[in-house]
Structures are given as C-alpha cells and as structure tokens.
Amino acid sequence: MMVDAEFMRRIARAAAAETLPRFRRQGAVANKLAGGFDPVTEADQEAERAIRALINAEFPGHGILGEEHGSENISNSHVWVIDPIDGTRAFISGLPVWGTLVGLTVDGDAVAGLMSQPFTGELFYADGNGSHYEGPGGPRKLSVRKTTSLSDATMFTTTPALFKGEMRKRYDELESKVQLARYGTDCYAFAMVAAGQVDIVVDPGLKPYDIVALIPVIEQAGGIVTTFDGGPAENGGDVIAAATPELHKAAMAVLAG
Predict the structure, then answer these.
(1) Chain segment 123-156, per-residue pLDDT in tens
(2) Which regions span the lipid bilayer (predicted)?
(3) What's the DSSP call for residue 184?
(4) By C-alpha distance, which of 94, 112, 90 is closest to 103?
C-alpha cells in the first residue's frame, strides 16, 4: 500500500509543533514505572494527540495504537502505530537523537512509516515505493550499506545493560566481533541503518510502537528487521536490524549461542 508522502510530512509537522517548543525547556517529567524510571512528558502526550487527530480525520476507518493514549479499533485491517517521542530520555537530556515514530500496519504487516527528528530538520520515511530522506543536504532515496562481514560492521544498541544473564554474554561476544560498537540514540540508530551509516542494531524488549514505523524504512532501503529468532518484529520483542542478509545471519548465530 502506498501512503502519500505529503500526509507523512503533515504528521511530522503536527508532532513538531508540540515537541519542538518543549525541547530543551525545563518542562514537567512524569514517571510511568514504579520501581524504575520510564519518563513521559507533556510533549509526548500532546504530540500523540495531534497525530491521532490527523489520522482520524484522514482515515476514520483505521485503528490506532499509541504509547501514551492507548488503542482504538485495533481489530481493523489498517492500524497506525505511534510513538510520539521515541527516546524520551534523550529528549529530557537535551540530546537531538529522539524522534517521532508513526507506522502503518495492514493485516499485521508494517507497510509504511516515518521517523521525524524536527530539531535537526530530518524526515526518514517509507511510503510503499522506497525509503526516503528529506532534510539537510537535500532529498534522496535511502539505501543500506553492503557490509557483509561482522568484522567490518558498525553496530548500535541502546545499552548493553538491557541484556540480562546468558544473553549479556552473547551480546558481549557479538560486540567483540564488530568493528565499531556504539550505544544510545534509540530510533536514530535504526534510521541510520536505512541511511547506510550503521550496519546492525540490536535492541531487546521493544514494544510495537518502538519498531513498527522503522521496519518499512529499513526494509524499503534494502535491509532486514526481525526478532532475534528470525520472526516478524511488528509485535516488538528482541529486535535485530541488519543491512544485509549475510550480516543478519551472522549476528543471529552469535545471539543464538
């Protein structure tokens, strides 16, 4: 299914109108997690509200699953999945590596999506006809790197601390095999796979709204996104994105032990 690029831009603009004025301001931060820290801000809540209003006006028959405001009509064939600010920790720390994620699933398959970083003025989107970039340097079509060997690969994860027990040992082994490992940047790292800057991202424990929007951006740029066991990633879980089938297979073999 094709999604109009201008509708993607409208979503990005509507979200930016709520997020940018609140970025690097000392706004209130609430904690959603008892016994831990899962921050949510007014920017998260208002951006999702604005995105939902656009989708409901344009596609009243579609369902919506959002991180902040729950689900509506998600038994429908077409469901939009929203993370208004992926990387809230980066947002409240003043780092411009958070992004707005909006993806569309049709019968459970992610077919279109966007990642918008309004502070840097960047939009990464997949519309069913390829993966695209708009921002500094001008518009271009996105394409993954052709790296096939772990020893030549750049890999990102949010933090190795997310890997527990035996899985931490397997992650450490994988990190030892790549050329360069970096941490953090949430959705931005996945966008960099599509942009041909990063070769592998491994992130455990993702929710659907963390990854649905990014699956088509990477896949339509030529990459691969699955769970660690090779299954579909639309429902979240332990997720690996890779630039090539060879890298994907090699990284999964290490993670499987």
Answers:
(1) 999 999 999 999 999 999 999 999 999 999 999 9
(2) none
(3) -
(4) 112
